[in-house]
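Example record

One chain of 139 residues, shown exactly as stored in the release files.
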Amino acid sequence: MQSPSEFSRLLKDRAEAATRVLERRRISLETAIEALEVVGYKVYQGNDGAYNVQPPRDRASEYDAYPTVEPTPEAKGAFLSDYPAMLTIKDVAEITGLHVNSVRRLCRDGNIPSMKFGQKIMIPKDIFVEGLGIEDVGK
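Predicted C-alpha cells for this chain:
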C-alpha cells in the first residue's frame, strides 16, 4: 500500500503529465478537460494563456487500497505514435518528465541507449520504449 505522501507525489506527477498533454494538444482540448475534471482534476487557463492542471485533494487516508488502472490495447498502440523513430534529448525529457540535462547525462553514462550524430544525440524510439518495458507500441 502506498503512503499518503507517495500518493500525493503520484497525483502531482500525473497532473504535470496531463499539463504536458494539454500543451501539445494531442487530443481535443474539450475532451481532455472533460476527462480530467471527471476524475477530480481542476483545469484552468492562466493569464499567459497556458493551461494548468491541479490534482484532486489528497484523500489518501480515506482509502485502504488504491485502484490500479491498466491501459487499453488502443492506448498502448498509440503510445508515442506522434514522435519520430529517432527521439531527441528534448523528446525523451518531455516523455519522462526528467530535466534535459538529466537525460543527456543518462545517455552519456549509457543508461539510455543513444547515438551521436555530430553534436546531436538521438535515441531510437523502439529501443527506448523497450527499455521502459512497454509492449505493442505504435510505429
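Notes: Helices lie at 4-24, 29-38, 73-78, 89-96, 100-108, 125-132.
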